[in-house]
Design brief:
With 119 residues, the protein is an all-beta fold. The chain has a single domain, classed as Jelly Rolls (Sandwich), CATH 2.60.120. Strands 1, 2, 3, 4, 5, 6, 7 and 8 form an eight-stranded antiparallel β-sheet that branches. A hairpin with a 2-residue loop joins strand 2 and strand 3. Pfam families: Cupin_2 (PF07883). This is Cupin domain-containing protein. InterPro entries: Bacilysin_H2HPP_isomerase, Cupin_2, KdgF, RmlC-like_jellyroll, RmlC_Cupin_sf.
């Protein structure tokens, strides 16, 4: 039997929980994860700030809706619905929500810290 089939493969929205990160400003829902990949939806209210940080994971951030000032390695970019950005491992990045919106973050390897596990 394929070892991958021992882990969840389907992630119905009704079975997922939304985690509040900053009350009234930022929350997230882990959409799917497994193996070395994870996808997370982030919900942000206008004025919410994702502080500049870095991690060893590769990340792609896709803007589903809203507008964000995205800071990547000291450079600022306007991110609007339909735009995406690649964040290389260990590169400082952060975002400020200009217009209420949602981001879809894809990580590899998956963020064990988001799953409550130590990396």
């Amino acid at each position: 039997m394929n070892e991958t089939l021992n882990t969840p493969l389907f992630f119905p929205d009704a079975a997922l929980t939304t985690e509040t990160l900053v009350a009234g400003k930022v929350s997230r829902k882990i959409r799917a994860h497994g193996g070395g990949l994870m996808i997370v939806e982030i919900f942000l209210q206008q004025g919410a700030v994702g502080d500049v940080h870095h991690h060893p994971h590769e990340q792609i951030c896709y803007c589903l809706e809203g507008e964000f000032e995205f800071l990547l390695d000291g450079r600022r970019h306007l991110l609007k619905a339909g735009d995406s950005v690649y964040v290389p491992p260990s590169v400082p990045h952060g975002a400020t929500c200009l217009v209420e919106g949602r981001l879809l973050d894809i990580f590899t390897p998956q963020r064990e810290d988001f799953l409550g596990k130590k990396p």
